[in-house]
Amino acid sequence: MNARVGPLPYKTDTKALYERYPHLQQIDLMWGSRECRRYLMNLMTDTRGGKRQGFLPEHAMTIMRLQMEHDRLFPQFENEPVDLRWGDERIRPAGR
User: Fold this and answer.
1) pLDDT one-digit tens code per residue, 58-72
2) Burial category of 63 from C-beta neighbours within 10 Å (exposed 0-12, middle 13-18, buried 19 and up)
3) Whole-model pTM above 0.85?
4) Count of C-beta atoms within a 10 Å radius of residue 38
5) Do the beta carbons of residue 26 and residue 72 sit within 8 Å?
6) Could you give phi then psi for residue 73, rounded to 5 degrees?
């Protein structure tokens, strides 16, 4: 695991999350950006047509805490339009 120089950009403990999923350390690089919020949202959304395995509860909770902390610190990104579909479910056409 790469050692960080300087303080963490957030207060949520990510040690166990990053040990299990080292590629998620990119959150540190994106922290405080619109892309970080989108990335955190996408982690918790099935974008693989129902084939996403999902996170263990403790890791899912860490991701949710990161998202809540990001929203609290950077509210300008919180209310942007987000595609909330789960998996490949069909979205009803407007007016139905």
Assistant:
1) 999 999 999 999 999
2) buried
3) no
4) 15
5) no
6) -80, -30
